[in-house]
Amino acid sequence: MLEEVFTSFTAVKILYYIYVMSLWLLTSNLYEPCPPAAGVSLLLSGPTVSAVSLTVSPDVQQFFSRKAEKVSLSCAEDGQTADGMKVKRTVEGKTQQCGNRREDFGFINDSFCIVSDLSRSDSGLYWCESSDRSSEQINITVTDGALILEVPALPVLTGSDVTLRCRLRSGLNTESADFLKNNIKIRSEPDGEFIIRGVQQSDEGFYSCDFDQAESARSRLRVKASPSPSSSSVSGSSLPIVPLVAALVSLLLVVLLLVAVLLLRRKQTGRKHEPDSDKSHLHETTYADVSIAQAANRREKHPADLETIYSGVKTQTAGLDDVTYGQVVIRGQGSAGVRPAQPSEPDMVYSSVRAGK
């Protein structure tokens, strides 16, 4: 019994080690960064472009220079405010940081950088930056002219619709406008709006508009590929599935090992009980057709004077000392010279007596 318990405990312990090692291997292979390909070197001297983006409100790139005009800038990562990021800009070759110091531009309000009373001096490249990350740059243009083209500051997704508006300083759309892409006229619109339906990567470029011999500045329309449902589902669910699969595989190993231990234990138990069962078979005896009849002459005084007749007694040597008895008859013996009365039936008859297997 102790040997069986020790064997089971050892098997479970070995399986536990296998389970731990499998989880370690899976997690290490899953989260270990891929080594760079041959001949590729990693540059870590400067900030890298990541998922951090500069959010512009309103979401346009062109503004009129006037006292009431302002723009709000913030840094976001995966839809949340990115902590530790600073809004910076380059104007006329000079890099500045948004803040409340004299040398800074704009001012900080909560997590937003507010640039008010826009003027042409605020035109430049804006981005978010920290010690190790930076976002893509957005070109914000502030004009003294009479015409601007509203182009989204953030990239638009492929397959979506985007509207480009040619606006006057009064805030109204032009009555009609010609729209240009990369300085080439592509179409005219009577209401000053150009709607691009089902944006594709080929729609990316620099756009401007013309109205009444006035032309707006050029702004770049950026297009970003939409995430496919399969890729989004894989990126969102692959990490939890792999450990789940590893756990299921380990559980299956546990079940298989337990089944093996039970089968081994049953086999050992069967071997221990096998000799006892053989002995019990040796002692089993089956009696069949046993008849006991009363003696006809009950006045017989000497039951000891019985004559015994054995007929057909055989010993089989093929099995384990099996003995077969058949036709054993016991009848009374009369006195000398006296004919005993014939009993109606023998006193005792054994017929077909066999030793069971």
The geometry reads as elongated
Spans of at least 5 consecutive residues whose pLDDT stays below 50 are 30-49, 231-239, 279-285, 295-306, 315-321
Q: What is the rounded distance between the termini?
A: 31 Å
The overall pLDDT average reads 73
Beta-sheet strand percentage? 25-35%
Q: What structural class is derived from the secondary structure elements?
A: alpha+beta
Query: Taking Cα atoms only, what radius of gyration do you get, to the nearest Å?
Result: 52 Å
- Our count of helices gives 2
How would you sum up the major sheet?
A: 5 strands, antiparallel
Explain how this protein is built.
The chain is of the alpha+beta class. The protein contains 2 helices and 30 strands. Mean pLDDT is 73; it is low at 30-49, 231-239, 279-285, 295-306 and 315-321.
